[in-house]
Amino acid sequence: RLGISVDSIKALREQTGAGIMDCKRALGETGGDVEKATDILRQRGIAIAAKKASRETQEGVVDAYLHSGNRIGALVELNCETDFVARTQEFKDMVHDLAMQVAAMAPLYVDSEEIPEGYDVNAEEICLLEQSFIKDPGRTIKDLISEVVGRTGENIRIRRFERFALGE
Which of 2, 43, 142, 167 is surrounded by the fewest CB atoms within 10 Å? Predict the structure, then answer.
């Protein structure tokens, strides 16, 4: 059996935020391949997010982002299950990144279910959850939230957002 180095476990943990034992198991399954282990952990995060999707989200944070020059701004309400998670730095950073995403990409809806019937549009352009994350275009906003759900163990959802642009 291949020994998994502490450094590779540490690197995977820093990259994904997953627990030490989860990182060790994923590396064991992939023969020490950090990229494949990252994919495994990401898929598990999505599976965990799907299991938790029906749970109630009454806590959370509202955050604002103002683009330099104060000509564009956004407000986002992100909800979770407990105020404990809402107070974590990871949660606060995520809601701020989402407000920045809204300011930059101007989505119209949270997800594709909100698009009116018969409205022929590209969901990847106008639905926040379907958009590529501006800080990491290889991931969607839905992926980003699923990863945090996997790490926190709580359901997280974007309740609403608003974008403001001078003159619009």
Answer: 167
> How would DSSP label each residue in 70-81?
SSEEEEEEEEES
What percent helix, strand, coil does the chain show, rounded to 5? 50, 20, 30
Q: Tokens 């106008």 correspond to what residue?
A: 126
Model pLDDT for residues 95-143, shown as the tens digit of each residue: 999 999 999 999 999 998 898 888 888 889 999 999 999 999 999 999 8
Matching residue, tokens 């995977």? 12
| Residues paired with residue 60 on neighbouring β-strands, in sequence order | 79
What span, in angstroms and rounded, lies between the C-alpha atoms of 63 and 19?
Answer: 28
Q: How far apart (Å, rounded) are the C-alpha atoms in residues 145 and 53?
A: 11
Q: How far apart are CA 111 and CA 154, in angstroms?
A: 20
Query: What is the model's pTM?
Result: 0.71
Going by C-alpha positions, the residue among 55, 29, 31 that lies closest to residue 156 is 55
List beta partners, residue 157: 79
17-to-8, 10, 23, 66, 123 alpha-carbon distances in Å: 13, 10, 9, 28, 29
Per-residue pLDDT at 89 exceeds 50: yes
